[in-house]
Automatic annotation (TrEMBL):
Identification of the protein by name: 5'-nucleotidase SurE
Catalytic activity: a ribonucleoside 5'-phosphate + H2O = a ribonucleoside + phosphate
Segments forming domain Survival protein SurE-like phosphatase/nucleotidase: 3-195
Tree of life domain: Bacteria
Organism (species): Salipiger thiooxidans
Signal sequence segment: none
Native organism taxonomy: Bacteria, Pseudomonadati, Pseudomonadota, Alphaproteobacteria, Rhodobacterales
Amino acid sequence: MRILITNDDGISAPGLKVLAAIAADIAGPEGEVWTVAPAFEQSGVAHCISYTHPMMVTEMGPRRWAAEGSPADCVLAGIHDVMSDTTPDLVLSGVNRGNNSAENALYSGTLGGAMEGSLQGIPSIALSQFLGPETRDLPTPFEASATHGAEVIRRILALTPASGGDYPLFWNVNFPPVPAARVKGTRMVPQGKRRGTCFTTEPHLSPSGRRFLWIRGGDQRVAATPGCDSEANLDGWISVTPMRADLTAHDALADLGDAFA
């Protein structure tokens, strides 16, 4: 198996090293793992692509490339340039430092990379590690994802349909903020919404007196939609959520379609 890996934390991020080890396990001794990752951190860019300016792609080592672009850019570069001789069999994005469950999924560059892989017709999975008090003092905060990642990916691949239609499935996997031994198992759950919290801005003055805004995330441990991804994570479960790039609200379309008849 030929696997393309990327992330949004940057090519030097420790989570990418964890993903490379997971990918090597999945690919097997006869397989190949190719890395095309952002040269600099690209957190929060979602499915952004560098449509209006070119990007430099630099070879950093055998099967290892850095791109001055987003995770979706990296997947495009990997498929159509770096690995243009043979399309990869699988795209893996992560392991993100921090969760991409609930509303975080909408902002996530990690998911943006997996989404682009699915739009290119390749099975694609985003992986993220929820952080919390129980992961703070571990030798690596990625212990749960490093231990359980390969098994979860194999289970997902066994469930992925051979033909996904115009908008094939891609998968959002979040590992809970606990040591590997305390992971309870895996649950297939919907994307949730943390209630009463959202991204905000915080103003700061520079030393020269200029006013700038920082984007602040909301509380990651507040109650969320019952039975959803973030609730499962906080209860010690790995969450797996099937997703599509189709943004149509099909329930509303059915209810409101007669309004324009």
